[in-house]
Amino acid sequence: MLHPTLQKHCTKILQQTDPRSINRKATLQRLVDYLVARLKAGHTAHILVVCTHNARRSQMAQYWLTVGAAYFGLDNIVVQAGGTEASVVHPHTAAALQRMGL
């Protein structure tokens, strides 16, 4: 269950987003198709987000994908972040995630 503030934030984002304006729609559709197929088959869907340092972008993506799954009630989605180099979460990333309620 999402924190009420985060729930409101997700609802606001969805209301303000026009799906026709998404730049990488074809790429995202492949991800959606994979998730739907896995979940319909009764399996867990795994998503791995990889970035060079695993300190900012991949972790932000991991959290938002996890939040999105929770928002839509998709319990069988596991998201992980990884990088090609060992690193720690950048302090600005941690602060941004805290401001968003994570």
What does it look like?
- There is one protein chain.
- This protein has four helices and two strands, in the order H-H-E-H-E-H.
- The protein is α+β, with helices and mostly antiparallel strands.
- It has a two-stranded parallel ribbon.
- Strand 1, helix 3 and strand 2 form a beta-alpha-beta unit.
- The mean pLDDT is 87.
Order of helices and strands: HHEHEH
Q: How can the largest sheet be summarized?
A: 2 strands, parallel
Give me the Rg, rounded: 15 Å
Helix/strand structural class: alpha+beta
Number of helices: 4
Going across the biggest sheet, name each strand in turn: 1-2
Short description:
The protein is an alpha+beta fold. The chain has four helices and two strands, in the order ααβαβα.
Keywords summarizing the entry:
single chain, 102 residues, alpha+beta, two-stranded parallel sheet, 4 helices
Detail the topology: elements first, then pairings.
Elements: H1 4-16, H2 25-40, E1 45-51, H3 57-71, E2 77-83, H4 91-99
Parallel strand pairs: 1-2
